[in-house]
Amino acid sequence: MENTTLIAAFLGLIEGLTEFIPVSSTGHILLAGHFLGFDSSGKTFEVVIQLGAVLAILTLYSARLISVFTAAPHDPHARRFIMSVLLAFLPAAFIGVLAHGFIKTVLFETPILIAVMLILGGVVLVFVDRIAPAPVHEDAMKLPISMAVKIGFIQCLAMVPGVSRSGATIVGALMLGASKRAAAEFSFFLSMPTMAGAFAYDLYKNRDVLDVAALGEIAVGFIMAFISAVLVVKWLLGYVSKHGYALFGWWRIVVGSAALLFLINSY
């Protein structure tokens, strides 16, 4: 029990550290859980602890969000921002519901696929960081609705573990003309309904397999994810504004390659 709790805390730490950087938190958690022998019923632990990271974003952006929703009744810009996030969320919600069983029982159970996607995503990130067009949108809250919807469809690629939700949305935003900071911030905003929806739906689908022990592990992972996510978000915007995303691409390539070698040698 004690060992399982420590692993849950470690996985929660990984979740918070990786959720909002484009390295695939789910990929890291699933691979770490595989190598540590950690297994949760229906992979619910891996999805539910993401809510800790969502609450970190809500906490850090609470003042801005309250301001937007307060202004919405009389401010068309506030209403457009809310609409852009909701419309960007819909493609992932639709596909996530339709493909939930396949994603959880097949894709989440294929470590080699996760490692390969980490590598490929890293190559894409390094490449895009170099060739992305000059930014024309500097404010994440003022992206055109059509652009937000396109980013929402691109986010659906992250249904494959190892792709990275933040990675897909950031790459999409960069290629569509967002600045590096705006791409990261819009990814933050889009994560709120996306991850909260995934949490609620997964909890509903797996309500029959949750037990008291699992809830304890989830609580530990949740707290660790919240704390570490707060620290990462505060650091990330300043870093990517100055240095871009190449570091995260190389990290993905190294981690994915190492995991792939271990997995191949274990067969």
Count of domains: 1
- One letter per element, helices H and strands E, the order comes to HHHHHHHHHHHHH
Summarize model confidence as the mean pLDDT.
Answer: 88
The number of strands is 0
Q: What gyration radius follows from the Cα positions, in whole Å?
A: 18 Å
Which word captures the global form? globular
Helix fraction by DSSP (H/I, runs of at least 4): over 70%
Strand content: under 5%
Tell me about the largest β-sheet: none
Assembly classification: single chain
Euclidean distance between termini CA atoms: 29 Å
Query: Which parts are unreliable, with pLDDT below 50 for 5 consecutive residues or more?
Result: none
Distinct helical segment count = 13
Alpha-beta content class: mainly alpha
Main location: membrane
Function: Catalyzes the dephosphorylation of undecaprenyl diphosphate (UPP). Confers resistance to bacitracin.
GO cellular component, one term: plasma membrane
Protein name: Undecaprenyl-diphosphatase
